[in-house]
Design goal:
It is globular and about 55 Å long. Helix content is 76%, strand content 0%. It is mainly alpha-helical. The chain contains seven helices and no strands.
C-alpha cells in the first residue's frame, strides 16, 4: 500500500525542503546525512495521521527533524564507541568485516528497541542484560533502591515487548 502525498505535504516539501536541508547541514556538517534526515523528516510528515498544513511549518519540520537528528547522533556515537573499543584490541582478536557489520547492525537494533526509555531505565536494563549485574549492584551504580531497579527492569521489559510485537 503506497501513501500518496496530499497537496499540502507536497507544498510543504517544495516550500521548505531547501531550508530544512540547510538547517540539518549546519548541525551535521555532512550534506549526505542531512539529505537522508530531510527525506526521513518528510516521510514522518507523510505517515502522520493529521496531515493538515501546520501553522508554523519550519518549527514543525525542525521539531520532527530534531528528533531524527538526536537518534542519528546517538547511534553514530554508539557506533564510534564500539569501533574505538575494537581498535584497542590486539589485531589477533579483531572481528572480520562481516562480523563487524553484524555487530554494528545489532547495536543499532538494540538502540532502536530501547529508544524512548528514560536514561536510568535504559541503563538498568543494559547493566542487567549485557553486564549481568545483580539488582543491588545496579542500584548502587544508579543511586536508587533495589525496588526501583526492579521497576526499571519491568518497565524496560514491557517497552521492549511492545516495541518488538507492536502492530
Amino acid at each position: 500500500m503506497s501513501v500518496s502525498p496530499s497537496p499540502t505535504v507536497a507544498e510543504l516539501y517544495h516550500a521548505h525542503r531547501g531550508w530544512l536541508l540547510n538547517w540539518l547541514r549546519r548541525r551535521l556538517g555532512c550534506p549526505h546525512d542531512a539529505g537522508d534526515l530531510a527525506q526521513d523528516t518528510f516521510v514522518r510528515v507523510l505517515l502522520r495521521a493529521d496531515r493538515d498544513h501546520p501553522r508554523e511549518p519550519r518549527a514543525y519540520l525542525a521539531t520532527l527533524a530534531h528528533g531524527l537528528l538526536v537518534d542519528h547522533l546517538r547511534r553514530r556515537d554508539l557506533e564510534r564507541a564500539y569501533l574505538a573499543e575494537l581498535a584497542a584490541r590486539p589485531e589477533a582478536v579483531q572481528p572480520s568485516a562481516e562480523d563487524l557489520a553484524i555487530a554494528v547492525d545489532t547495536l543499532r537494533a538494540i538502540d532502536r528497541l530501547l529508544d524512548g526509555l528514560a536514561p536510568k531505565v535504559r541503563a538498568a536494563y543494559l547493566y542487567s542484560r549485557l553486564d549481568g549485574l545483580a539488582h543491588a549492584e545496579i542500584a548502587a551504580l544508579l543511586g536508587v533502591s533495589v525496588s526501583r531497579v526492579r521497576q526499571y527492569l519491568s518497565t524496560a521489559a514491557r517497552h521492549c515487548y511492545a516495541q518488538r510485537y507492536a502492530g
